[in-house]
Amino acid sequence: MNVGRIGALLSRHLYLYKRSFARLLEIFYWPFLDLIVWGFITIYLAQQGNQLHGAVTFFLGALILWDVLFRAQQGIALSFLEEMWARNLMNLFASPLTVGEYLMATMTMSIFKVTAVGSLMILFALVFYSYDIFVIGLSLVPFIFNLLISGWIIGVLTTSIIMRFGQQAEVLAWGMVFLFQPLSCVFYPMEVLPAFLQKISWIIPPSHIFEGMRSVLLHGEIPTVHVIWATGLNAVYLVGMILWFYHTFSICKERGMLVRVGE
Amino acid sequence: MAQPLVEVRNLTKRFGDFVAVDNISFDIQEGEILGLLGPNGAGKTTTIHMLLGLITPTAGSIRIFGLDLAEHRETILKQVNFSSTYISMPYSLTVEENLRVIARLYGLSNITQQIDDVVKKLDMQEIRGKLTRKLSSGQMSRLTLAKAIMTRPKVLLLDEPTASLDPDITQKIKAFLKEYRRSENLSILYTSHNMREMEEMSDRIIFLQRGSIVAEGTAQQIVERFGQRDLEEVFLKLAREERRI
Ligand SMILES: Nc1ncnc2c1ncn2[C@@H]1O[C@H](COP(=O)(O)OP(=O)(O)O)[C@@H](O)[C@H]1O
Ligand SMILES: [Mg+2]
Description:
Distance between the termini of chain B: 39 Å
Bound molecules: adenosine-5'-diphosphate, magnesium ion
Number of strands of chain B: 10
Oligomer: heterodimer
Structural class of chain B: alpha/beta
Largest sheet of chain B: 6 strands, mixed
Distance between the termini of chain A: 30 Å
Shape of chain A: globular
Order of helices and strands of chain A: HHHHHHHHHHH
Mean pLDDT of chain A: 90
Number of domains of chain B: 2
Number of helices of chain A: 11
Low-confidence stretches of chain A: none
Number of helices of chain B: 9
Helix content of chain A: over 70%
Strand content of chain A: under 5%
CATH architecture of the largest domain in chain B: 3-Layer(aba) Sandwich
Order of helices and strands of chain B: EEEHEEHEHHHEHEHEEHH
Strand order of the largest sheet of chain B: 6-7-8-3-9-10
Radius of gyration of chain B: 18 Å
Low-confidence stretches of chain B: none
Number of domains of chain A: 1
Mean pLDDT of chain B: 92
Strand content of chain B: 25-35%
Largest interface: A-B, 32 and 34 residues
Largest sheet of chain A: none
CATH class of the largest domain in chain B: Alpha Beta
């Protein structure tokens, strides 16, 4: 791992974002709108004297945490798309840059994005709805950490598919993560799923995070079991996914796709 | 003779059943310009991509600086670079920003100074702060050439560096390359389907057709061997023979 080369890639993206108002806007536009809509929904639910105890606290919390996952994923997949659109992959991979360094750089980009969007959403929620996500307490640390890793896993998966199938798979950069949304139980407890779906949901790391979030907010319990499950699953999937990415990369080099994507 | 900087042995690339490069071998000596001549689809670009590690060969070996490319990719690629009229650089960055990113990728020190240097060499002062999106095609090829020489490669791979450029810019780029090769003792692999350019630029020529080497030597030697008047006639003769096959 050469830190200078990782820095080179980061500087390339920072130059890009510095100049692109559209890209900056895209980062903040959706989270902001989501927050407004869900904020009013929770206010409405609260006014109804909700039977749904704690709804106010967990919708906005779920939304913010979901966005951590989404942005982490996008940090990876969009970084690749940017190189593809710019027809820059050849310049990068004909340089001494390694695949590992490339992945490290995109993961760092995703940390930047999550931090930027996350802090802004937390601030919005606090100012407009007096919603303080820190009621979740210390569990927030493993939650965010795990969602970040899950985002990387989905992001690397998306990237490998785009690399393999080219421009026609582009839309996955936005869509892929939503494939995991129903079974991640973001806005509802796992128990509402049919039994067989619950089993699948159990092996999807983010479902443990959202389940854990509800248990903190509803019962004040630290969800140790869920955090352990999420962390364990994430560790296994991350290693598997990185190996998969290396494999896809070498297939692409064999088939000459690396020099063709973007054309 | 000293050890060649580039040694290619029995290099083959198949895409499925299609043979793009068929068992070719050649060397490039230090300070030499080797021309890779051939019609469209002959396998020139594929060969260059294999030398850059962007495409994995089906068979054969590539050694650069005496090291095997598959095993010593990082070490080798630090001292190799490439350019082509067909490559691009990120549009949303300025010329200078693009050069900075490349400089960091190749681990250069004194980056500002290096950029000053290359900007002066290629007469790019007035486009240095310009967005890459706004460059003309001639300015773009100066930028991609700048990115290639800025990293001070020992081996430079140029894939049709003058295709689609007007004669004036073509002339300037060729003159620059010849002078630069002399001052740096650089080894260059140069592809083109333009015979006159090949003759003018190359010390030695490899004639590639349908992935195979069909002739090799100086332009003079090739012309004599085929009993023709110039390279262009050799080219046409070979192309017509191929059509008869
Ligand atoms: N990734 C690829 N997959 C399949 N065929 C390819 C690929 N890349 C190149 N080819 C084929 O290999 C042949 C040689 O291409 P190329 O090396 O680009 O030729 P040249 O640069 O001499 O014009 C062409 O017929 C081309 O269509
Ligand atoms: Mg070509």
